[in-house]
Amino acid sequence: MKKIVIPIIIAAVLGAGGVVTAVALNKPSTAVADNEVGAPEIAEGKYYLNGDVNSGAYFELTDSTLKLNFDGDGYAMVYDACINEGWDEWNADHTANMFLLDYCKENPYTVFNLEHLTTIDIERHYAYMNDDGTPADDIGSFMYDGKSISCSPLGDFTLVE
User: Fold this and answer.
1) What CA–CA distances, in Å, run from 3 to 6, 9, 10, 15, 118?
2) Do 84 and 91 touch, CB atoms closer than 8 A?
3) Are the CB atoms for 156 and 149 separated by under 8 Å?
4) Relative to the CA of 160, which of 9, 13, 31, 101 has its CA 20 to 30 Å away?
5) How far apart are CA 103 and CA 67, in angstroms?
């Protein structure tokens, strides 16, 4: 009987060791999503609509703030861009007013980066109203590809050095 028990015990120990070894060797590596993805460097400066310094619109990005500037009538520029995109008049008016009140001031921003998507986010206060009629806080997000800030419905604002 001892001759049968000892090989069974040895087989069980070796089997358990094999399972532990297999699990240790096949342990999945840390997923990319589990690692902190660093935000790209955001270059400070003036980002002009379509990279054209004569476009009449630009974002000014500093180390701590983002501000949309218009050389002329910003309301008309945004309103017309909305209408050209097929928006109705109410939404075009709402959006143009929101741009002027929320984007055309120095806004502190944060950079959000998730693998292949980078956004520059600011707080907005005009876009939505609470039930009591006070402005609700909201986030305005602008896509950033390393050289341009995308701002719908106007288009891409490219850094001009």
Assistant:
1) 6, 11, 11, 19, 67
2) no
3) yes
4) 101
5) 6
Burial of 115 (0-12, 13-18, 19+ CB in 10 A): exposed
Beta strand 45-49 with 135-144: parallel, antiparallel or unpaired?
unpaired
Token pair belonging to 120: 């520059």
Spell out where the chain has E strands. Answer: 45-49, 57-61, 65-70, 107-114, 117-129, 135-144, 148-151, 155-160
Q: How far apart are the C-alpha atoms of 16 and 6, rounded to whole Å?
A: 15
Kindly report, residue by residue over 42-63, the tens digit of the pLDDT: 899 999 999 999 999 999 999 9
| Total residues found in the chain within this entry | 161
Over range 141-154, report the average pLDDT.
93
Cβ–Cβ under 8 Å, residues 97 and 89: no
Six token digits for residue 134: 């006070």
